[in-house]
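User: structure tokens for this one?
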Amino acid sequence: MIRIVVAGASGWVGRELVKAVAAAPDLELAGAVSRSAAGQDAGEAAGGTRLGVTIAASLDEALAVPSDVVIDYTKPHVVKGHALTALKAGRHVVVGTSGLSAEDYAEIEAAAQAAGRGVIAAGNFSITASLLKRFATIAARLIPDVEIIDYASAKKPDTPSGTGRELGEILSKVRLEPTSKPVGELGGIRETRGGAVNDGGIAVQVHSVRMPSFVLSAEAIFGMPDERLTIRHDAGSSAAPYVAGTLLAARRVGEITGLVRGIDHLIG
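Assistant:
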């Protein structure tokens, strides 16, 4: 049995994770964290049956109980601290919270290596989003010009989304030199060209759209003379796609040491 702590247990994805972990024959819900639902039974707070696991107000409190993996679906301003705390306590970590930078992940990678533990982090744990990243990585090695548009709800607090940011960072490492005019040479309102996302390579322009009716979508647009390729992922209103990918990561994270970004490495 893999013993799981879910941080963010009362959130949109967290509630579904609690129920899915409890129902899985090879997983055990060892703990749950949520400041807003602290003291409640995790199963009942998730809208299911009583599980006998009381939600803790802090990760430190939840880690007092033996466990193997911490899954984090909380907030951008607390997720790095949670990951470092879990690693220091000897747990593997699965990060589903968006908003971390390449520098944040470098710090988490160093802590994971020092602790001899694994971390799997993804801006989006859905299978189709992982395939978007894989296919876009192939295309970026062949087509010089690529830009990303990321769509999310009007209330989403971080830009770009974890999906868009992670995609931009990955593509920056493999993409070819673009033919488009550099942003620094443009006139007018340069900000309309989006934000430059880079992780040690050639920056990718990412444009974030925030408005009602979107849950989460991301598209990579590739252009060559007289032809264009668009690869797009669209999420529906259910948390189900993220649950399946997250539990896959929780089952596999114990096999690695250090940080792995995305689950495309786990699906073939």
